[in-house]
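sorry to bug you again but im stuck and you know this stuff better than me. what follows is a protein written twice so to speak, once as letters and once as structure tokens for the fold. id like you to explain what the token line says about the fold, in plain words if possible. anything you notice is useful, everything is just below.
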Amino acid sequence: MSPVAVSADRRFHRAHVKPARRRGAWRTASIGVLKYGLILGLVAYAAERAVTFVSTSPLLEIERISPSGNQRITSDAVRSTLAGLRGENILFADLDGWRSKLLDMPWVRDATFRRSLPSTVEVVIQERLPVAVGRMGGRLYLVDERGAVIDEYGPRYSNLDLPIVDGFDAGTGDPRAADVRGAIAARLIMALRQKPAVASRLSQVDVSDVHNVTI
């Protein structure tokens, strides 16, 4: 038999390559799940430890309450109202709830709470502005710029030179009637304050007739 000629060109040779074994898909998936599961577990553990540290750290317990903006209300009175806030965690304390308690104080019109890390809560207070002394049921009360009662008038407010408002008790006995009359009186007094020459001479306002207020 005559020999067969073989081309020297490698392009005509079929490569004899042994196919590599493919790793099973289940094994790849398992490794991926274990790897990411381990990472997530470590992250969750670290987050839990961080939350535990933050929520229990004595460094973040509220120690100081710092009021500002108050004139009629003493800082001690503010701190006394918010005494239960001391010792709470500054990051998790319910400041909205404590703000509601502070708003129950007669002189407080509004209040803003600010966290100052690590352990101070700043309280910015906006007080009510007294504009008149209302006569109701034979007693005298301070009335603010909205016509709402602030506090009973007494010697401690003798330095306030304010007009007296009569007529709160007039009407049908509807409890809302006094609020309406107070608001009318307050608007009138605040408007007259734009004219100092007139406001300085104002001594009494009568709101018995809401359609015909007299001064």
User: Anything to note?
Assistant: Residues 25-56 form the longest helix (32 residues). The chain has a mean pLDDT of 84.
